[in-house]
Each structure stands twice: as structure tokens, then as C-alpha cells.
Task: structure prediction
Amino acid sequence: MSDQTAPQDGAAVQSRADRLAHLVIVALMGAVAVGVIVTALGFPASPDPNDVGPARFPILYATGLLGLLGILLAQTLRQPVAEVAAPERRHYGRVALGMLLMLGALLAIGTVGYFPTAFVLLAGLMALMGQRSLVWNPVLALAITAAIYILFDYGLNVPLPPGSLFE
Amino acid sequence: MDNLHLLWGGVQTLATHPTAILLSIFGVAAGIVIGALPGLTATMGVAILLPFTFSMDPVSGLLMISGVFFGGIYGGSIPAILLRIPGTPAAAATAIDGYALAQKGQAGLALGVATISSFIGGTLSVLILIFLAPILAGFALKFSASETFALAVFGLSIIASISGDSLVKGLIAGFAGLLVASIGLDPMGGFPRFTAGYTELFTVPFIPVMIGLFAAAEVFKSMEEGELRARAMAQIGRLLPSWPQLRGLTGTLLRSSGLGAFIGAIPGAGADIAAYVSYNEARRFSRTPENFGKGEIAAISACEAGGNACTGGALMTMMTLGIPGDAVTAVMMGALVVQGLQPGPLLFTDHAELVFTLLAGMLFCYLVLLALGLGSLRFIGRVLMMPRSVLMPLVLLLCVVGAYAINNSVFDIGIMLAAGVVGYFMQRWGFPASPVVLALIMGPMAEASFRRALSLSNGSYDFLWTRPITVALLALAAVTLLLPLLRRRKGGGPGGTPEALPATAAGKE
Amino acid sequence: MELTHRSKLKLLAGLGAAAILPAGPALAQGYPRRPVELIVPFAPGGGTDLVARAFADAAKAHLERGIGVVNRTGGGGAVGLSEIMAARPDGYKIGLGTVELAMLPHMGLVRFSADDFLPVARLNAEPSAVTVKADAPWKTLGEYLEHAKANPGKIRVGNSGTGAIWHLATEALADKLGLRFNNIPYEGAAPAVTALLGGHIEAVAVSPAEVSAQVQAGQMRILGVMAEQRLEAFPDVPTFRESGTDLAIGTWRGIFVPKRTPAEVVETLRQVARRTAEEQAFRDTLKKLNLTWAYLDGPQFAEQVKAEDATFKALMTRIGLAR
Result:
């Protein structure tokens, strides 16, 4: 993973955006951990007197997480902030579109089934990533969709979603 | 040695049995395909083929099943290295360094090392099964709940080894993974925790989470890049490691194979745990531990040798004790029973001739795996020649199909997508994904066995310090967790660039 | 692809016909027009899956379009059983139901109850077998139960998970005789058997097939089975009933359809299930897999399910599992 991540010793600098992101992450995860503890306190005790019950371990994990978040918070606050030259333009809009396409596929696949969903998903993603040829895009999308279908459904006997519309 | 004699007899019997030879080749090939496709596991493959073995002779049927088993574990490494899609939990460990190496244009070397290590690990474990089974078989029985708990804690401590540069972020990812792992039915009382009423969440859909965190997140990240650069593809590079490279791996291979066979023999512990433990130990003994996580071939070698060595260990427990240690050996035990061979202490004496023919056949299966693996790598590596604008959408579609296939569930596709989005942001801000996977494997095991141990001891915590294996494993865990801290103190942190530059930048030169 | 496409056309044709003709009987007459899907709520390779696959294989001769097995795993059977319950009641999605469908509802974990299913046929049943190590001091069931009476909570009995059938079998025994055991749940029967072999627990209550390897090797001893009659595979092992404890409890597996499935469809499936179950090939396969053939026709099976549903409810309420 991010091997270039600076060791959080306070030596390296961080950009303003990174600092904000880390603070948001600490806040979010902290909220989750607190939520876990509150929920777990409502769990019933185990009927077995020797057992610690279902709540013990989640509370333990959440407490550990809170402690670690505290360390991360301290590290982030200690680290000096500086303007880092923006590395290069990154296409975040494209990432968001890709995620939305996947979300659409997730919502559609149950009703319309594998074939149309996979075809549209592939065509959309390929267009997004630069394969926009009016001939190759649909041909490739169709070929891959069919190849995977044949491999799973016939070759391996693993049925893909038929779609509730067509059942 | 008497066993050697019997084994030679087995080889001769096998040589006159063309059906068995053909079916084991078929089994290995099918296993590799099944293992390489995300969402399909060796268990599934073995279960699907089982009914066909009913009408076969015992040797042919069982060798086909063994072939699927072996091939399935090895096959997972291929997409893990090439595309960062871990087909199996064990391959998630291989993906760490395998994919990093592939990003440096040396996918071929990564695949070659993985294949050779799988072959050596598997072969050594079958040899251990042949010659040391009576000595080692009883070991599995020493593992009660407290030992399993200690093993899980040791496994969790490995998070320290795979955290990358920020131990705190690695541990945060690990603890978050532990929380995710506690979703579902509580392992002792069956109480539903954090499920929001979804029956699908009663057991954590572990493989979809893994596919999302690794593969889908990687594709999302690749979407950030400009189109021109996106077209330049990684090279395959050379396939076989050089002789000095291979010699340098000897220690890793032997150690990982031994560890793998050992861990495989423990019921409930499988290739995933073996791969991570082997990784950890390879790093501990390495002269260049700082290279781990950045494309170290010893890491790939350790994971694959350890993972595949599990096969021999798991078979040993199943064949000598009649106890299946995991789902695959459970199905294989069914296959043995169907053929009129009752696994258990009497199997090796009552059916010596047949058993040794089988064992010879298993060694043959691993040879087939080596040949098929090395023979097809050049062809499989072609995948990387595809333009990225087609390859990346294909990977996402495979993520969708793989997440669905594991339980035939659309819900799991949603889990995969959520994990992919979370994984993307984790990667963006320098939180490693592997600790989450490790926590998902070890978390439930740690909790269940701790609470079981407590029940077994009638509520006394004595089991934590009165049992030698437990104590040894817990001590090992403490060392693993504290070692990176000590190292950092001594060496001082290396100067780093601002964080969250994607790892790929290093490979692009 | 060809198949689905064709079935889609047939469906469209069927819809067209349904618009003109009275719907009910027309639909049943043509049943089945396409392959029937058999939902298995457990993973491939397990006992339930093996029964399903053996059944689907043998049914080919009796059901023209065949049966496809689909595993829907998760939640100790809850996910798959929920899907069977919620399936369109047209006979194209049927399920392999297990004893869990009469147990899970009482634990407050699922939205279905046993009444939501219509039993078509029972295919297989396995009793609970109380098993100890061969070197255990108890030679007979009587000695074991006496020891349990004298040492309440001391005997550690492994089972395949809290709320699973083998756990309930032990609890039912304890309940019946006023005993107390220390129940230790494992992730399935095999780890429990391993723990027994390693001497970490004193006994297990699982199906006889799950300990047969160790019993044949002389490492374990079955003290008694909670069955109506002695088992074919273990003729020397007494039933609990013989030893004076009136208890028969165990798992069963059979074909189920959602409640509102048309009677004609159910009738067709019942005939198919009966003819399939009576095939020698099906019986042989089960025997090879160490599974007990136990065909029972729908109506009688329904009575059993109903009775056990009530028993489990009472038992689970008493031991604090019901929610």
C-alpha cells in the first residue's frame, strides 16, 4: 500500500487537505466506535455463567480503536502543515462516475439480470476510461459479457442472476 | 525405509493407470481455473466434481479431487499478482508483494516464483504426510480452544508486519476489521450483532469484502489517472527466477513449507493463516525486511509455499485421524468414504497399497501443477497486454460476478461495492487494506476460541498461562507486535515523501 | 444463454395465454415448463447439499426439465430458508428444507415460521448419537446418565453450534431427566469430534455418520442414539427409548415449497419426489455418503414438522434460547 507514506514522526510535512482528511477520518471512526460501544451495552448477557457474553469483544475492539485514533489525532496535530506542490491533475470526477455506474449496476442486476447490466456497465466503464470507439466499445462489451456468462453459467455451472423480471 | 518401498510400489501402480493420470491432469487444470476466478473456491470445485467420482475407481476419483484442491489454492495467486484480485483469502497475502512486483514490470517473475514455490511447498508437505504422518498426526489433537485462541492472537499480531510505514494506521485498519468481523451471529450464543435485521449479515460476507478492498479499490484508483498514461501497460518480464535468486529462497521455502504443513494439520486453520504466518516469519528472518510490501520475491515465495503446504497438513489430519480440518478436506473425506475407504488410524495399514498409490498420485499432481503453471504463464500474462481501458472494466465486472457467485447473492455485490469505495479512500489516505483481511480471518477465531476456552475451564482464566503451546504462541505474538517499534527506535525513521502518493508511482519509473 | 432466452419466450407465451384463459389450472397443467430451481440453504459439500445433489441427479428421469441446485448459504440456513419462503409460489423455486426451519423462528432471528412452508417429502433423517471416548469410564448409557446426575454441569458436551439441532438434542435430554451439562459450541460437528478425540471435552452429541470413522477405529463409543429404532449401520447401539428415556430427536431434510403453491403443482412434485426417492440409485448414493434414507410422504411429514415445531418452541423457551 502507500509505501511512500511518511512515518508519522513529526519530521515530514502534510498538506492542508491531508490534515483535514485525517481529522475527518478520526471523527468518523470515533463516532463508529462510540456507536458500537453504545449498541453493545444493550446486548443481553449470555445464559452460560462462564461466558463473557456477546458484548465483551466488540467493546474491547472499539475501545482499542478509540485509543489508536487518539494517537493518530495527536500525530496529525503535531505534524507541521505546509503548502505541498500539487502533484498532477487527478480525475476525481471520473472515480465518482465509476462508483455511480457500479451503484447503478448493483441496483439493476437483481431486476433486469446479468446480461443487460453487465453490458451497460462494461460499455459505460470503458467509455469512462478512454475506450470510446463506436464500434469497438459495444463489440468488446458484448464479447466480454458473453464470455463470462458462458464460463460461469455453462463451464462451471454457477448461475448468474437471471433478473426477477424474467423469472 | 518401509514407506519408501510402499511409495515406489504406488508409483508403479500409478504408471499403469492412464485414467488416473488423465483425470489428475484434468483436476489440476480445473482447479487452477476455479481458483483463479474470484468468488469460486476450491471447496466449491471439489463439491461440484464429487458426484462424478462415485462411478470412478477410487484412485482416479480421489486424484481428480486432489488435483482440484491443489490447483484451487495455487490458482488464486494468478489474479492476485496480475490484477490485485485475491481469488482466495490466502492469495490476499500474495497480492501484497506480488502485485507490487507486477507494477514494476516483473509480473512474470512474480508468477514464476509463485508457481515454483507452490510446487515446492505442496510437494514437501505431501512428503511430510508420507514420512512423518504418524509422528505429527497427534499434534492436531493438542490444539484445544486455548491454543487456537493463542494462534489467532499471533495471527493478529502479524498486522504489525504488514502495516507498511505507519504502524498506527495499520492497527487502526486492523481494529476496524475486527469490528467488521464482529458483525453477525455471536459465535457462542447465536445473538445477532449489528445486523440491522439483515439475515445476509448473519455471517460476515468475507470474500466480497476482500475483493472490494483489494481489486475494486485498485480499479477506482486507476480511474484517477490520465488516459494517455493509462494505455501504457505493465510488462510481463522474465518468467523464471535466476539461479542465485532461487538459491536465496531455499531457507524461505523450507521454513514456509514446514510452517504450512504444521498449520494445515491444525483443524480450523488453513491456507490463509499459513500464508500470513509464513510471510511474517520470512520477514523476520530476512536481511532486507524493509523491502517487504514493495515487491519482495521472498514474500511471494513464503505465502505460496506456506499456503500450498497446508494441503499436505490438512490431508494428514483427515487421513490419519478421520477429522476434516476444513471444508475441502471434509468433502474429500466424503469421497474417500464413498470409495469404501474409512479415513482414520487404520487407513494407512488396512489399505496401504491404495493409500500409497494415492500419495504417489498427489506428488504427480504437484508436478502437473508445475508444468501447467509454468507452461501457461506466458499466455496468462498476456492479460496485462490488454489496454487498461478494457482491462479495468473487466476487472470490475469480475468483482461483481465473483462477489455474487460465492453465495448467489446480490446483497454481497453491495458489500463488495461498499468495501471497494471504503478501500479507495483508505488507500488515498495511507491506510493499508491487508490488516482488515487479516482481522476478518482471525477476529472470529480469536473471539470464539477465547470464549470456548473459558467455558471449557468453567470460567477460569488459567488457560492463558498454564498451557505451554498457548504461552509460546502468545509470547511470539508479543514479539511480533513489539519488534517494529524496537526497530524504529534503533534505526530512526527513514526520510519520507509526503504521504498518500499511490504505490503505483514507484512502479511506473 | 439459449436456454434462458427460450424460457423467456415460453414465459411470454404463457403470459399471453394467461390473459385469455382462466389462469390457475392452465398453469399447473403445463408444469414444469422450465427447469426447477432447488435452493439449498447450506454450503456445497455439506450433508444437506449432498442430499440435494443426489436428489436432483436421480430426479432427472422423473422431471422432464430437470432440477438445478443453487446454494444460498449464510446465517446457519436462515438466508436460504428465507428465500424459499419468499419465492414466487409457482413451483419453479423449491427448497431443501432442514430441521432448522422449525428452530430458527423461535430464536427471533428470521421473518418466517414453520407454517410458511409446505412439506412435499422427507428424504433423509439422522438421529442424535451420544458419543464418548473409548477409554471413558462409562460403558453404557445408564452409567453415563448416572454420572451426569451425580455431577451436574461437569460433563462437557460438544455440539455444532448454539441453537443447532445437536445442541437442542443435549438440552432435550437434560430437560427430560433433570440433568445439567456444560454445552460447548463448535463451528460444526467436525471440530467438536476433534476436541473429543483430543480429550478436551467428555462427550459429543452429533449424527452417527460424523463419528463413524472414530467408532470403527475403536477410538470412540456411541452410547445411544435418539432414534425410533436401532440404526442399520450400528446394530449394537441401543436407542434411548430402549434404555428407558423416551426421546427421539435429530435432523431431517426434505423438499419444501412456499405455502401458497397451487395444489396441482404440489401434487406433481409429490409424485416426482416419491418416484425419485424410491430409485435404487438414490438410495445407494445416500448409503455411500453415510446418510440415512428416510422417505416420508408430504402429509405425514407435515405432521412431524408441526409436532417438532411445537416441541422445539417449548424446549427453547425453557432453556432461554427463544427470543
